[in-house]
Amino acid sequence: MDLQQQKVHIEKAQNFMRQYRDPESRELKKLSANQFMDVWSHYDRDGNGYIEGTELDGFLKEFVSSANATDLGPEKSSLTDEMLVELKSCFMEAYDDNQDGKIDIRELAQLLPMEENFLLLFRFDNPLESSVEFMKIWREYDSDNSGYIEADELKNFLRDLLKEAKKINDVSEDKLIEYTDTMLRVFDANKDGRLQLSEMAKLLPVKENFLCRQVFKLSAHTDCTSTPAPFATQEGRIDEEGAARLTKDDIEKVFSLYDRDNNGSIENEELRGFLKDLLELVKKDYDAQDLIEFEETILRGVGYDKEGKISRKELTMILLALAKQPPEDEQ
């Protein structure tokens, strides 16, 4: 190990962020996809998909002190506890977009300078309007109908995503492979080398799960952020007392939200999108087979006629059955 390598090794041990600062200007250097993942993995020590609590304190301390020409070490740090509290408050106000008190991987991506193309994969200025659009994309890229987005299919998705974002196709095959590998490191929670439905849903966020709207009165056990964070595992359930207050107008609003083509029925990807949103209320880790089984269970309970679509009446039966509320003509 030469002198420069020894210096980097020591700095890395003392302050992980220091290695990414320019030695002269002290500005952060542009990170590659792999370097960004190294930073994320270093500070997300428990691997739960967030930098929070003492992890966040450690990141902020090292992020600030790495700008100094020399590392004072934690004992001599000029950052007092009071300063850290104020810094944390300002930092979270600027970067904690969903205001959950912790930093997810997309929020960190807005802070650290990265390769432009890789950064685009984390910038969802126009997230999908609904799970209906998500299911259309899932069907398109699950080209072999395996129920998973495998590495080659993910690479095709990322290529098209970058092409659409930049309106040009200037990403090399090697870079695409690097980005694909990195995205699998981020979103492949069970490490099987492919993305199941719930993992892809975290990569490609939907603006809103319609069934998380206030009218459904979800319990505190349900995580209903509009952009689900990577590796979330919290289970949820519908608050029956709240859902039992559903009205005809509420149900009509839900129907119109999923009947995207306004043809009077919810079918195909509209139906899959509705069921995906419904499944997310009770299960955060799910695959395509779970969705199929959930569909069979839910629709069997309302006497579904297997036409591949549901009407207003059938949607009403589903929602009221979940709320354990009888139809109005039985009340």
Automatic annotation (TrEMBL):
This is EF-hand domain-containing protein. It holds the Pfam family EF-hand_7. It comes from the Eukaryota. The gene is 5566546. GO terms for molecular function: calcium ion binding. It comes from Aedes aegypti (Yellowfever mosquito). Keywords: Calcium, Metal-binding, Repeat. PANTHER family: CALBINDIN, CALBINDIN-32. SMART domains: EFh. The keyword Ribonucleoprotein does not apply. Residues 31-66, 82-118, 129-164, 175-210, 246-281 form the EF-hand domain. GO terms for biological process: regulation of long-term synaptic potentiation; regulation of presynaptic cytosolic calcium ion concentration. Belongs to the calbindin family. InterPro entries: Calbindin_Ca-bind, EF-hand-dom_pair, EF_Hand_1_Ca_BS, EF_hand_dom, EFh_CBN. GO terms for cellular component: cytosol; dendrite; nucleus; terminal bouton.
